[in-house]
Amino acid sequence: MAPPRFINTVVLSLLRSRLGKGMCRRLLALTVTGKKTGKPFTCPVMYAKHERDFVIVAADAKSKRWWKNLDPDGAEVTLTRGTTVTRAFARTLERDPRARGKALRVYITTHASAAKPLGIPSNWPTLDDENLGKTAESAVVVRATPA
Q1: Distance (Å, rounded) from C-alpha 116 to C-alpha 87?
Q2: Could you give the domains of the chain?
Q3: Given CB 3.0 to 4.6 Å as the disulfide criterion, which of 6, 42, 97, 131 pairs with 127?
Q4: Which residues pair with 43 in a beta bridge?
Q5: How far apart (Å, rounded) are the C-alpha atoms in residues 105 and 108?
Q6: What is the residue-averaged pLDDT of the chain?
Q7: How many angstroms separate the CA atoms of 25 and 85, rounded?
Q8: Which of 144, 136, 132 is nearest to 97 (CA)?
């Protein structure tokens, strides 16, 4: 279930301030452009870094809207961490179980407490990337590569 809008507003304000610098190790402000409206939509998301890329997981994706503005072919997004703004190209990894699994592995390694709520089995470290990519069915996995 998505948090109330006012909570996102407070978190986004903190993320964009110098006070949010400590929060930036786990959260960023993701801005996507609406496919239908063309208007920007910004929300706070947890992320994990993998080399240059950012891995973002929309847990309980049915209750989220932002990822619907991305498609497997991708879209431009803006990632804001504190006062650092990064333009990136983001795409969902739903068509490629191996890439999805690799991204999930990075995300769970960074956010171990996320595995159980995502429905990822406790033996996930022993799964190969393709089989890991077939878990967490209610989540959408996104990889954002800086431009």
Answers
A1: 31
A2: 5-146 (2.30.110.10)
A3: 131
A4: 30
A5: 5
A6: 88
A7: 14
A8: 132
Alpha-carbon distance 74 to 118, whole Å? 23
Gap between the Cα atoms of 83 and 133, Å rounded: 33
Alpha-helical (H) ranges within the chain are 5-15, 97-110, 115-118, 129-133
How far CA 46 is from CA of 28, 29, 37, in Å, comes to: 7, 9, 25
DSSP state of 123: T
DSSP conformation class of 117 = H
Please answer whether residues 23 and 84 qualify as being in contact, where contact means their C-beta atoms are separated by less than 8 angstroms: no
| pLDDT tens digits for range 19-33 | 666 666 789 999 999
Work out the burial of residue 102: count CB atoms within 10 Å of its CB; fewer than 13 is exposed, 13-18 middle, 19 or more buried. buried
- The neighbouring-strand residues paired with 15 are none
- Please report, in angstroms and rounded to a whole number, the separation of the first and last CA atoms in the chain: 31
Q: CA 147 to CA 130: how far, in whole Å?
A: 27
pTM comes to: 0.87
How many whole angstroms separate alpha carbon 35 and alpha carbon 38?
6
In the numeric block, the tokens 């795409």 are attached to 91
